[in-house]
Design a protein that fits this description.
80 residues; mainly alpha; 3 helices
Length: 80
């Protein structure tokens, strides 16, 4: 039977419950340790950048963080 011959309700697709459940679980999930560390690093990057009166670029910010004992990659995706 093709779609034009189907009666009312015969072609209805049930809603995808798994998508809404997954979204709810994702919203209820706690912040990961990596996300927490990234937020902490972002604050440090911003403080170094502001202390330089916004004149330091990423090489100098990286060097300043390294001098303070912070370990981070030079090509870190977090920007000042």
């Amino acid at each position: 039977m093709n779609a034009s011959m189907a009666g009312p309700g015969e072609n209805d697709v049930p809603p995808l419950r798994s998508q809404s459940v997954g979204l709810l679980r994702r919203r209820q999930r706690q912040v990961s340790e990596r996300a927490h560390d990234d937020a902490r690093l972002q604050e440090k990057i911003q403080s170094v950048h502001q202390a330089s009166r916004a004149t330091y670029g990423s090489p100098r910010v990286h060097a300043a963080l390294r001098n303070k004992g912070e370990t981070c990659l030079f090509k870190c995706p977090i920007q000042p």
